[in-house]
Amino acid sequence: MLLLLRVIAVIFAALFICLFGTVYSLIRFKNPSNVGVVARWFGRLHPLFGVEVEHRFAANASHNGPCIYIGNHQNNYDMVTMAYMVRPRTVSVGKKSLLFIPFFGILYWASGNILLDRDNKSKAHSTMGELAKRIHQDNLSIWMFPEGTRSRGRGLLPFKTGAFHAAIAAGVPIVPVCCSNLHNKINLNRWNNGKVICEMLPPIETSGYSRENVRELAAHCHDVMKQTIERLDQELAQQ
């Protein structure tokens, strides 16, 4: 019974956000702050899943300026945990197939997110250059998941280099956002599904990196995020 009630509540809440968010985004068509507003609406749905979420923002996070945010991508529940961490004037980069998701696709496009054709590698590479231009022209930050896919319990997967190429080209820092382990933690038929911690780390400067050593930057960010996720998991285990 609890499972059924939750599914109904989540469907209605998600549909309401998608419909209202689409109207809101069309009125402010592709305004850079649309994404953060809608993302925080989704981020407030976590009580419907029986999850407590603690959001930790780095000191002076509101003064980050243009940057590339990178997050660990675990599963679909990221929409109600990590989504609340999206800052104003931040848009995400997603695959074009998101357009075909009923209700959500039009919202994703109208709110100002950037769609990427992942099947066309040469075009995807040029898109990283376009991202760098847009960061400065529109005073934007970009949110990306460098793993490229959901990890689904496999730990922090190896990073692709697109986000780091864009950061180096734009001359902006990388800001990691880490979420504690979610794998098999949420059971919709269970009243209390525990606690999750999402933490935004201080910016990582990219000025000392170039295209030639971009993989070193990716590896450094991967190590920082892996250590942070392990720390968050240990903290929760001790509570």
TrEMBL record:
<keyword id="KW-0472">Membrane</keyword>
<keyword id="KW-0808">Transferase</keyword>
<dbReference type="GO" id="GO:0016024">
    <property type="term" value="P:CDP-diacylglycerol biosynthetic process"/>
</dbReference>
<dbReference type="InterPro" id="IPR002123">
    <property type="entry name" value="Plipid/glycerol_acylTrfase"/>
</dbReference>
<feature type="transmembrane region" description="Helical">
    <location>
        <begin position="7"/>
        <end position="27"/>
    </location>
</feature>
<dbReference type="GO" id="GO:0003841">
    <property type="term" value="F:1-acylglycerol-3-phosphate O-acyltransferase activity"/>
</dbReference>
<keyword id="KW-0443">Lipid metabolism</keyword>
<comment type="pathway">
    <text>Lipid metabolism.</text>
</comment>
<feature type="domain" description="Phospholipid/glycerol acyltransferase">
    <location>
        <begin position="67"/>
        <end position="182"/>
    </location>
</feature>
<protein>
    <recommendedName>
        <fullName>1-acyl-sn-glycerol-3-phosphate acyltransferase</fullName>
        <ecNumber>2.3.1.51</ecNumber>
    </recommendedName>
</protein>
<dbReference type="GO" id="GO:0005886">
    <property type="term" value="C:plasma membrane"/>
</dbReference>
<dbReference type="Pfam" id="PF01553">
    <property type="entry name" value="Acyltransferase"/>
</dbReference>
<comment type="similarity">
    <text>Belongs to the 1-acyl-sn-glycerol-3-phosphate acyltransferase family.</text>
</comment>
<keyword id="KW-0444">Lipid biosynthesis</keyword>
<comment type="pathway">
    <text>Phospholipid metabolism; CDP-diacylglycerol biosynthesis; CDP-diacylglycerol from sn-glycerol 3-phosphate: step 2/3.</text>
</comment>
<keyword id="KW-0594">Phospholipid biosynthesis</keyword>
<feature type="transmembrane region" description="Helical">
    <location>
        <begin position="97"/>
        <end position="116"/>
    </location>
</feature>
<keyword id="KW-0012">Acyltransferase</keyword>
<keyword id="KW-0812">Transmembrane</keyword>
<dbReference type="InterPro" id="IPR004552">
    <property type="entry name" value="AGP_acyltrans"/>
</dbReference>
<keyword id="KW-1133">Transmembrane helix</keyword>
<dbReference type="GO" id="GO:0006654">
    <property type="term" value="P:phosphatidic acid biosynthetic process"/>
</dbReference>
<keyword id="KW-1208">Phospholipid metabolism</keyword>
